[in-house]
Design goal:
12 strands, mainly beta, 6-stranded antiparallel beta barrel, two-stranded antiparallel ribbon, 2 helices, single chain
């Protein structure tokens, strides 16, 4: 179970953040990739035939303690921003480092909930890129702009990429 995440925010849409702002993440809800379907009534009233339309990504939501002027400047950007979350999962005597990289645009920028033990800031991001790395192995990459949905190194959208002339 991961109970502590650190966050680095990039000042651009680069793969590796240029500006490193270490922030403690107290709550993290990673995006969910949902497949959208349309039901076709070709068989009349007996049954619907579902066929896939595409994918939808739910927003990324996280809450941090504390805020610096640099982090406020980065989460207040109009441009695309990269968020890199790093957590450590403990399973008995073994440790795994999990890194989740999300790119997207800030949807909601909470100005903070204040209490005696400090302030918490909730941010919502509309995500258009997700990559999950466990230790050093990339286990999932979802980049719908470039027709990439790789799971354990296999691109589920390779046929579409080839048909469009984007490579395999």
């Amino acid at each position: 179970m991961i109970n502590f995440w650190t966050l680095r925010i990039s000042d651009g849409a680069t793969t590796n953040p240029v500006t490193t702002i270490p922030l403690e993440v107290t709550e993290l809800t990673l995006p969910t990739i949902t497949r959208q379907f349309n039901d076709d009534k070709r068989v009349g009233y007996l049954a619907n035939i579902p066929y896939p339309l595409g994918y939808e990504i739910s927003p990324l939501e996280y809450t941090t303690r504390g805020r610096t002027t640099t982090s406020l400047r980065l989460v207040s950007r109009v441009a695309r921003t990269t968020f890199v979350f790093t957590g450590c999962e403990v399973n008995g005597d073994t440790y795994s480092t999990i890194t989740v990289t999300c790119r997207g645009f800030i949807e909601d920028n909470g100005m903070g909930d204040f209490a005696d033990d400090g302030a918490e800031y909730k941010i919502t991001v509309r995500v258009d890129y997700i990559q999950t790395v466990i230790d050093t192995a990339t286990v999932m990459t979802f980049d719908p702009t470039n027709y990439i949905y790789e799971v354990n190194g296999v691109n589920q959208l390779a046929a579409i990429r080839t048909t469009l002339g984007l490579g395999s």
